[in-house]
Specification:
Blueprint lengths: L1 H26 L2 E10 L10 E6 L11 E4 L5 E8 L1 E8 L6 E7 L3 E8 L13 H10 L1
Parallel strand pairs: 1-7
Antiparallel strand pairs: 1-4, 2-3, 2-5, 5-6
Length: 140
């Protein structure tokens, strides 16, 4: 008898709690994001670029978790069901500089175009530079 009473009470409580949780989940707005990854110098698409999405907490720190997408041959990637709020987007592709920026997702649909640049030559203190040659000749 006690088991039956416990079972009935549990069913009644669950019948109130489950719909309340479902309503709360349904009210959270979700967005659809579309990405286009292109070359900065000529606007051609970059295929197989990794588009990494990280949620950002209110204090600006990157939250745990994330999602990685790959671009198709046209340089496009998309994802539906992104919750509203801050999102850190990073794009990585071989032969290009890594891109990173924070976006505020606040509308049902967002199109984001990302232009990747080629890496620039690193500055070395061990090499002669054109400006230094002119300066050293002037000092003599």
């Amino acid at each position: 008898m006690k088991f039956l009473r416990f079972y009935l009470v549990t069913l009644i409580v669950l019948s109130w709690v489950v719909p309340a949780i479902a309503k709360k989940k349904q009210q959270e707005p979700l967005a659809s994001l579309s990405f286009l990854v292109i070359r900065d110098e000529n606007g051609k698409p970059i295929r197989n670029a990794a588009v990494v999405l990280h949620p950002v907490e209110e204090n600006g720190k990157q939250a745990k978790g994330g999602l990685e997408l790959k671009t198709d041959p046209e340089g496009k990637a998309s994802y539906d069901g992104v919750p509203y709020g801050k999102l850190r987007i990073q794009v990585l592709a071989p032969g290009f500089q890594t891109f990173g920026n924070d976006y505020d997702v606040g509308q049902p649909s967002m199109d984001i175009t990302i232009k990747l640049k080629r890496p620039v030559r690193q500055y070395s203190v061990y090499e002669q530079h054109p400006n230094e040659e002119q300066n050293s000749q002037r000092q003599k």
